Amino acid sequence: MSRLFYQTRLERPALERAEGIYLWDTSGKRYIDGSSGAMVSNIGHSNPRVLDAMRKQMESSTFGYRLHFKTEASERLADKAAALAPEGLNRVFFVSGGSEATESAIKMARQYALAQGDAQRFKVISRTPSYHGSTLGALAVTGYGPLAAPFDPMMRPMPKVPAPRAYLDGLDIDDRATGQHYAQMLEDMIVSEGPETILAFIVEPVGGASTGALVPPAGYMQAIREICTRHGVLLIHDEVMSGGGRTGRFFGADHWGTTPDLICLSKGFGGGYVPLGAMIARDDMVEAVLDAGGFAHGHTYAGNPLACAAGLAVIKEIEAEGLTENAAKIGDLLKARLEALMQRYPIIGDVRGKGLLLAFELMADRHTKEALPAKLNAYNRLVEIAYENGLIIYSRRTRGGYSGDHFLVCPPMITTPEQVDEIIALLDASLGTFFDELPANIA
Length: 443
Ligand code: PLP
Fold this sequence. Notes:
This protein is an alpha/beta fold. Helix content is 38%, strand content 16%. The strands form 3 sheets. The chain has a 7-stranded mixed sheet with strand order 4-10-9-8-7-5-6, sandwiched between helices. The protein has a 4-stranded antiparallel sheet with strand order 11-12-14-13.
């Protein structure tokens, strides 16, 4: 018996090797990484140029504590991240994962407010559903019941507004009135809580696992920016999953051209080669916090030179190979193919996303949006069938985390049109098996 444990008793085969979009277990079975792990392995596995860069860095140094040395790798990666970020956000704070990036952004926001003499601002508004991380600070702003509930008494309650799930509310995502409708919920919340108490609003520009690649309705991103500015509320873009080129732009919010005050980045930033993340902040915020005595926050592995050298090589690869553009192109193709599956499977109720951050949602009735019975555990079952067939996809419950079933289909950004055919063939076969298992009153 393994001494290792994670969330459940789920048993998985041992990984032997991985290359490109494929993984092999020790029995020789091949899997397509149709979810890039957890939307992490954006440039695919075992990229030789990234491995070379890591090897080169390892030969010179693998650790230089940030309070003792600066390193070329971390300086160069900070320059690169700042160059990719919107104007005015040029200061980079390295971390080792997404939850740490969220914690860092929230703490930077709070210390900036203190530096401004705004000590009464401490509430961070977020959305339901949302996912911002599993540490207690990040979890307090996460709108996903099953993950947060056990810890509720240990966390400060933070206000939540509904995520703009226009497809469930029967609203037109392309209508600016829809964007305004959901943005107004934020403004109403700010006003009812007392604007002088609101520190920040945190939002995933294109939704991740909790909403299943939710795309904001027309005008929403611009409207929330205006509302935050009007009330002196800092805007945090959590680009942990949507950043790094996956949506067809380097940052998800680049689709709308809006500028936040703080950005959280991880996952595709290290591409699965190393634990790496970053919080990118407005220059003047950082200066104010440093002037006021310093940022009271940090993690031991921050700015690790090996992680930064790998991150730099990952971005180089994305740029040299045009992978962001490929994510946009292949994403359009894959989305069209997923939409085509709706003809064959009436239980596919919605297909959504941008670039290669894509998801489909199963429903008992596409028109009423009624979810499949929760006890069917469709979100687990279809993933298991696909896994058996050699296709890895990623699922979550859609409705508050307790019912509804969506599936992220997010292969690496190097995926080719032929590989899209492979993914769709395996998914089609898996859906067929799942469909045949359904009770007669649903199928
Ligand atoms: N924020 C978003 C949007 C995420 O999708 C995730 C992870 O899925 C996190 C934060 C937390 O990242 P990590 O699991 O690296 O701590």
